[in-house]
């Protein structure tokens, strides 16, 4: 069966087209204005950041050459994966460093989570009615999460000396800020009826938090803490750059001293570890959420 | 006599019977509780082991915190020192903002095709999709600071290396966020385009793109916020921005300047967050409306 679309008369078409143009002119003008603004900002920023595309073009080969170079054996006997024993010659040392890095992330997350846990209840509008105490807790958390952890690490390295201690403390403080905020948002969204019940039965403030708030928020707290752990593993791998322990110390040394094969090995170790941790925590969180939903 | 008291008395008198009828509730330690306790003990044990292994000691902590309090005293008042140093700090700050802007926009553009390749509903085939995902994951697995080190050795010291570092590490993040947005897009629009005779590319252009562009723009703004934070620190490895000045000042123990720079960063981040938050809210409003 042949079907034909009805064709509108020309004057009607012209009318429709005119209407369409009129109605789309406004958004079009706005999009053009936006594009111009962005182009202007980009031009200014490129000036400030000394963007030099010819230099990039010239050295683009060097970037890919770098990855080519780090995967060539020093002896010139082909690619690194041809001789894993030589490539991962330091696997014992690196393995220990990697475990230390994970431990730094774990202890940092645990301590930060603990701090955030305590402060979150003070920063929640529905549990603390004193606006000054609440404001102080919130400002403090905000400060902790806005200053990057590596800046804390730089300062702590001077105060506590080189090694993993400043790294753990830097991660703990930054995580406390980030987790404290997330935790207090969870606490502010709880069902208030158990709280009223506990208060009516004459519970003290800690008892009320323990029996009315904690059961509602614990699973969410753990889920956020796991997510933070994932981020902290990445962070812990670079804290060594400023002398705060972990595998970063060896990595920056290898990059600066051009131990190409070591760079490749360490990068691979870090990437694989980060991926495994990502997968593991994702599984755990899904199970946690599943358990939570089946109980609800 | 009070009715509640009689109820309680009755319950206490019937205790043996109640216990016989609800044995679960009267177990000293229900299995779920036991599991939670074991988990708690295990994680605390790991924490204690970690503290021991990472050489935490009370004397070291007391010494360190004593030092910190001393530094904190020296940080007040925040003081940039000379006028020329103030100009240097402001120059570093503008570099930081420029790095964040260019890095974010560049990554947003370059990740655009990758996002489509990594989404199952717009990719060429399963193999391409799988490979794109893995490449994006690996790029994301390397921290911006490591990318900065690599780029410094390619294009030399300076903010340009910082731009390239932020750009590279963000391609992974953007690609992942984009592909998730594309996969979540409504498929009816694509079906409509296909039904009226459009090809696969038409389907992407007219079916997927209008739905995902506002979501992508939201992600770009959000990443810009996050990148202003990361670009404050990549100067530590010589990739431009305010981080170089900050780490120099910390190493030379100029605490007044350090607190000035930190305050400056806090204010800048707050301003950027407010502006970008407004824009994102406007974007969300436009999408809903």
From TrEMBL, chain A:
Subcellular location: Cell membrane
The UniProt record lists the keyword Protein biosynthesis: no
Main location: membrane
UniProt cross-references to Pfam families, sorted A to Z: BPD_transp_1
Gene3D superfamilies: MetI-like (1.10.3720.10)
PANTHER family for this protein: ABC TRANSPORT SYSTEM PERMEASE PROTEIN P69, PHOSPHONATES TRANSPORT SYSTEM PERMEASE PROTEIN
Name of protein: Phosphonate ABC transporter, permease protein PhnE
Taxonomic lineage from the root: Bacteria, Pseudomonadati, Pseudomonadota, Alphaproteobacteria, Acetobacterales
Gene that specifies this protein: phnE
Automatic annotation (TrEMBL), chain B:
Membrane disposition: Multi-pass membrane protein
Keywords assigned by UniProt, alphabetized: Membrane, Transmembrane, Transmembrane helix, Transport
Family annotation (SUPFAM superfamilies): MetI-like
Coarse class of the protein's main subcellular location: membrane
Transmembrane segments annotated in the record for this chain: 34-52, 97-120, 141-167, 204-224, 231-250, 256-275
A Pfam match: BPD_transp_1
UniProt-listed InterPro entries: MetI-like (IPR000515), MetI-like_sf (IPR035906), PhnE/PtxC (IPR005769)
Domain ABC transmembrane type-1 per the UniProt entry, residue ranges: 93-276
Location of this chain's protein in the cell: Cell membrane
Keyword Membrane annotated: yes
PANTHER family: PHOSPHONATES TRANSPORT SYSTEM PERMEASE PROTEIN
NCBIfam families associated with the record: PhnE
Family the entry assigns: Belongs to the binding-protein-dependent transport system permease family.
Protein name: Phosphonate ABC transporter, permease protein PhnE
Name of the coding gene: phnE
């Amino acid at each position: 069966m042949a079907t034909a679309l009805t064709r509108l008369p020309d004057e009607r078409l012209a009318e429709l087209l005119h209407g369409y143009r009129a109605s789309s002119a406004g958004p079009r003008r706005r999009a053009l204005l936006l594009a111009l603004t962005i182009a202007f900002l980009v031009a200014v920023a490129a000036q400030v950041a000394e963007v030099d595309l010819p230099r990039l073009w010239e050295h683009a080969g060097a970037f890919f050459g770098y990855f080519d170079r780090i995967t060539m054996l020093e002896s010139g006997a082909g690619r690194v994966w041809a001789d894993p024993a030589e490539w991962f010659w330091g696997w014992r040392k690196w393995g220990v460093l990697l475990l230390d890095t994970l431990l730094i992330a774990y202890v940092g997350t645990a301590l930060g989570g603990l701090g955030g846990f305590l402060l979150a209840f003070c920063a929640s509008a529905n549990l603390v009615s004193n606006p000054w105490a609440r404001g102080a807790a919130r400002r403090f958390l905000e400060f902790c999460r806005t200053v990057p952890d590596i800046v804390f690490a730089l300062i702590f390295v001077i105060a506590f000396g080189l090694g993993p201690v400043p790294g753990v403390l830097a991660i703990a403080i930054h995580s406390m800020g980030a987790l404290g905020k997330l935790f207090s948002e969870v606490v502010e969204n709880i069902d208030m009826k158990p709280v009223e019940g506990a208060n009516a039965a004459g519970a003290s403030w800690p008892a009320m938090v323990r029996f009315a708030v904690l059961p509602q928020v614990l699973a969410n707290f753990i889920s956020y803490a796991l997510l933070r752990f994932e981020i902290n593993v990445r962070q812990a791998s670079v804290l060594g750059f400023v002398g705060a322990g972990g595998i970063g110390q060896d990595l920056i040394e290898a990059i600066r001293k051009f131990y190409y094969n070591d760079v490749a090995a360490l990068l691979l170790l870090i990437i694989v570890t980060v991926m495994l941790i990502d997968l593991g925590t994702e599984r755990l969180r899904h199970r946690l959420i599943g358990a939570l939903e089946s109980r609800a | 006599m009070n009715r509640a008291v009689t109820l309680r008395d009755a319950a206490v008198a019937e205790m043996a019977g109640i216990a016989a009828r609800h044995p679960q509730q009267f177990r000293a330690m229900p299995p779920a509780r036991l599991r939670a306790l074991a988990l708690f003990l295990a994680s605390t044990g790991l924490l204690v082991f970690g503290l021991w292994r990472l050489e935490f000691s009370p004397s070291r902590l007391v010494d360190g915190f004593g030092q910190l309090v001393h530094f904190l005293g020296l940080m007040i008042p925040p003081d940039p020192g000379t006028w020329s140093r103030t100009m240097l700090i402001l120059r570093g700050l503008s570099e930081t903002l420029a790095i964040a802007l260019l890095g974010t926009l560049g990554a947003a553009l370059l990740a655009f095709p990758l996002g489509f390749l990594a989404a199952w509903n717009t990719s060429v085939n399963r193999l391409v999709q799988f490979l794109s995902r893995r490449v994006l994951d690996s790029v994301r697995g390397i921290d911006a600071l490591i990318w900065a080190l690599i780029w410094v050795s390619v294009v030399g010291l300076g903010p340009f290396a910082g731009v390239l570092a932020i750009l590279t590490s963000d391609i992974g993040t953007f690609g992942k966020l984009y592909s998730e947005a594309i996969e979540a897009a409504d498929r009816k629009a694509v079906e409509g385009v296909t039904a009226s005779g459009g090809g696969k590319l038409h389907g992407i252009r007219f079916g997927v793109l209008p739905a995902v562009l506002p979501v992508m723009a939201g992600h770009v703004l959000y990443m810009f916020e996050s990148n202003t934070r990361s670009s404050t620190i990549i100067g530590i490895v010589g990739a431009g921005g305010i981080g170089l000045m900050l780490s120099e000042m910390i190493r030379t123990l100029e605490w007044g300047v350090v607190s000035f720079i930190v305050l400056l960063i806090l204010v800048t981040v707050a301003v950027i967050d407010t502006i970008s938050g407004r824009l994102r809210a406007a974007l969300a409003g436009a999408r809903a409306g």
